[in-house]
Amino acid sequence: MPTLQRATQAEQKAERYHAILDAAERLWLAHPERMASVAEVADHAGLGKGTVYLYFPSKEELLLALHSRHVEIFFQAMMSMLMQARTVNIEQIINIVKTHMIAPPAFLPLASRCFALMEKSIPPESAAAFHHGIAQWLERAGGELSRHFKQLPPQEA
User: Fold this and answer.
1) Core vs surface per residue 94-104: b (16+ CB within 10 A) or e
2) d(CA 32, CA 109)
3) Which entry of 2, 23, 57, 117 is 20 to 30 Å from 47 by CA?
4) Model confidence over 28-70: pLDDT tens digits?
C-alpha cells in the first residue's frame, strides 16, 4: 500500500485517524489472539510508523481508541432511536444491542481485551478519559430511557 502524504488539514487528520483505526480493526479481526504491532498497523494503513505514534502513543491506546469508536457508534445508534421515536420498546433496544455490540465480531472480544489492558498497560489518564466518555453517554442515554420508560426511577434508567 502506498504511503500517504502528510496530513495538514483537520479533515485529512481525521481521515488518517480513521485509516489507522480501520487498519487496526482489520488486523485485530484477522488475528484476535494477539495485538498487531504499530509497524503492522502503519503498513496496513499506508502510513509511516511515526505517523501512527502521532495519533496514538502506544498500540494499547490504539486498541482502546478502536473500542471507543465501537462504543460511540453503539451509543449514537441508541440515542438516535431514543430521540426520534415517540415510543420505544425493549425489543428495539435489544435490537440495537444485538446490531452494534453482539453482531460485530470485534466488539465484545475487543472490549474484554481493553478492560484487561486498562488495569496494567493504559495510562491512568487515558483510562479515565475513556470512563468519563462512557459516563457521559450513559447519562444522556439514561435520560432518554427514563422518558420512554416512565416506570423506571431516573437513577435506574
Assistant:
1) eebeeebeeeb
2) 8
3) 117
4) 999 988 889 999 999 999 999 999 999 999 999 999 999 999 9
Amino acid at site 17: Y
Q: How far apart are CA 4 and CA 69, in angstroms?
A: 23
Helix (H, G, I), strand (E, B) or coil at 94: helix
Compute, in degrees rounded to 10, the torsion defined by CA atoms 100, 39, 5, 18: 10
Q: Which residues contact 71 (CB under 8 A, 6 or more apart)?
A: 133, 134, 137
Q: What is the pTM of this model?
A: 0.87
The answer to whether residues 63 and 28 touch, using CB atoms and an 8 Å cutoff, is: yes
